[in-house]
Amino acid sequence: MGSGGREDALAWRLRQSPSCDDLIAAPGNPGIARWAECVAIDPCDPEAVVRLADERSAGLVVIGPEAPLVAGVSDALREVGFPVFGPSAAAAQLEGSKGFTKDLCAANGIPTARYVRTDKAAEARAALQDFGLPVVIKADGLAAGKGVTIALTTEEAEAAISAAGDGPLVIEEFLEGEEASLFALVDGATAVTLASAQDHKRVGEGDTGPNTGGMGAYSPAPVLTPELERRAMREIVEPTVRALAAAGTPFSGVLYAGLMLTREGPKLIEYNVRFGDPECEAIVPRIEGDFAELLHAVATGRLSEVRPELSDQSAVTVVVAAHGYPGTPASGGLIREIEAAEQVDGVTVFHAGTARTAAGIVATGGRVLAVTAVSDTFANARARAYRAIDQIDFADGFHRRDIGWRELKRAAALESAGG
Ligand code: AMP
Q1: Separation of 328 CA from ligand 1 center, angstroms?
Q2: pLDDT in tens, 343-396
Q3: Is the pTM of this model over 0.85?
Q4: Which of 11, 48, 60, 260 is the most buried (most CB within 10 A)?
Q5: Helices 238-246 and 98-108 meet at what angle, rounded to 10?
Q6: Are 400 and 385 in contact (CB under 8 A)?
Q7: What span, in angstroms and rounded, lies between the C-alpha atoms of 185 and 302?
Q8: Measuring from atom 11 of ligand 1, which residue has the nearest CA?
Q9: Which residues of the chain have pLDDT under 70?
């Protein structure tokens, strides 16, 4: 289910799985159409999805984005007996409600920023005294999404509180450190590490300008060492999985933990209940073995029998967006030479926002392509990704040239330390 770059990557790997003999995407996109039959239904309509699964006797339904999860599509499918990769609407609250997740952390001793939750502006203003500066103000509930303010001054904090009216808010301590993401597969009871990744949210080079859905990503994220990864699993992911199971709303699917690596160790910033986009495009190419079987094991509670196998290779994804993004993107721009880009060793070009017209492939969204390269080292994968992008002819597009700058800096520091 889905139609973005994340779903293109999922479909690509599913198609390569020995256990997958037929693949249907809804609604899909021209990239996904290379690997799957695309059926034009609304992935957020539970009845339409159940009907399609029924008609095609689906052996597994994989849900890419969060919207169908929140709309209860996985619940509707499970009710009639289809194995589903993706959590219930109840467990999807981990992403849908920041307050829910903060309270779950507090109740289970999970490391996260100290916080206050309120829906009274006056209480929120009073609570500011308990936090230093900067302070983080997050709008909670349905209208949230972009509602995170990192206030450097009390005036900014008060303005953010006023803007929320008497809406639900979380006020929390500002955490210092480097951010990294940890992806775990969870089958209700068992949680296993899948991979780490880092992404670039800002539109501009040097991580400047407005936030986007993500302009690039890489996996693994070496900053999340195996030791930190184990610690984050033990202190954050595993207690979360136990708490949800104990509450009668077990989590099944991929749990994406946004972490701040602080001096005191990893702390949870937020959870997402699906793969990140573009992180998915950088993780999936590293997964070895039968991907469909792995997701099926998650969906049917057999994760203790099947372990994910990750290659040692690095993957780098660079997003190509349409001019204007993340504002109003230019639509309809012609894109040529995608095939030439895919001639570069180790490269796959995933489609995020494209359509096929008589003239060829055109842009239809803000983020248009996710160019992914794998290689033995981070630097080689990155070089391949840019070599591929340089083949693409898309006058209306742009991309960042500095994806992975932290890794380049780290490698340079190591080299100079080594003499
Ligand atoms: P969220 O929507 O909660 O993931 O917040 C969006 C972004 O704001 C995160 O990716 C962080 O970069 C930043 N952020 C959120 N909470 C904190 C915090 N407590 N301390 C520092 N940065 C934060």
Answers
A1: 25
A2: 999 999 999 999 999 999 999 999 999 999 999 999 999 999 999 999 999 999
A3: yes
A4: 11
A5: 100
A6: no
A7: 11
A8: 269
A9: 141-146, 419
